[in-house]
Description:
Layout: H1 2-33, H2 36-41, E1 50-51, E2 55-58, E3 61-64, E4 72-73, E5 84-87, E6 90-93, E7 101-106, E8 120-125, H3 139-142, H4 157-166, E9 171-174, H5 183-195, E10 199-204, H6 210-216, E11 222-226, H7 232-239, H8 243-255, E12 259-266, H9 274-288, E13 294-298, H10 313-325, E14 331-334, E15 344-345, E16 352-357, E17 360-364
Parallel strand pairs: 8-9, 9-10, 10-11, 11-12, 12-13, 13-14
Antiparallel strand pairs: 1-6, 2-3, 3-4, 5-6, 7-8, 15-16, 16-17
The chain binds iron/sulfur cluster (SF4).
Amino acid sequence: MQRNNSKLNIFQLIAIALSFLLLLTVFIFFAFTKSPYILSAIKENGDYVRSASYWHRVDLGVQCDLCPRNCFLTEGTRGQCKVRINKNNILYTMVYNQPAAINIDPIEKKPVFHMLPGTSIFSLSTAGCPLKCTFCQNWTLSQTYPEEIKNVEIITPEQIVYAALSRHIPSIAYTYGEPVAYYEYMRDIARIAHAKGLRNVMVTSGYINEKPLLELLPYFDVIKVDLKGMSKEFYREEVDGYLDSVLNTLKILRRENKLVEVVNLVVPNRNDSDEDFDKLTKWVHDNLGADTPVFFSKFHPDYKLANLPATPVKTLQRAVEIAKKNGLNFVYLGNVPSVDGENTYCPDDNTLLIERRGFMVNRINLKDGKCPTCGRELPGIWE
Ligand code: SF4
């Protein structure tokens, strides 16, 4: 009996040694390739990743030219947005065909108020974002690596467009996270959608370089820009980006005659002073025009600022007052169903043109896109 036991122990020792070797091999493989997902997924022009647009080779790696970060990536590393990787000195996007969220929303939820009120909009996003807002309201998408998203289905641009068309949805929104992160996917969907007569809306932080932005514009109807504040320090400390880059994007959009709506998420004790509202609304008035719709949206405690309270409605109403005093004609409350904060009035004779409550549109009182009383044109897309 004793002899049998000692033979068994030798086999066990060999099995343990083999298991250890196997584990060591797997560990080395993981450590040196950084991500097994990446190796199995990279297949240029395949379903999972695509070579990215807007980058160039530099000594010891590649440089991304898509957003103002202009990340320098050595072999195997990713950009700040978490979804672009240098593999064999080629820059790849890791989120092409990989939406992490798809919904059909009321267009008022974006919020977009000056395009097709009362309609639905097909909305999607992938993981990733070039910025790191401490107050992000969609951080589970924007601050996530693509391989952390569970149950991702491969959906091609053609399939997205078909899904919208077959449900008679007139527009597509690139939203939730930051669409610049999935630039190539967005561009290809938007191009096909535009050719099929659908409208495209980009909801963005505006953190994008001029050349890639210009390539997108022919396919887009409305660009909703999240102007997070007017202080360089605020952008540096709370957003991890440059204010000037966002202002530059807004000026380009104005120069190219694009319909722009601006949203400002008001975060308590961060960007909620009268001076903040005054500076922001004067800048919009002087650089984008008095008819630019501006939203002041309520912050919900989240991500790194979960300790802060939600924005008081009174603060938002104060922002609206300052904006109107500075000459803006279309100022709205965001994330706050209210009696008056979401309606559109004619700036000339105060006729109620669009009555909204929450995400509902109760009444549209327009005649050929104009005020039925005085004939003033309402900027926007109405059919
Ligand atoms: S898109 Fe991503 S990789 Fe490219 S510069 Fe911006 S953060 Fe860096």
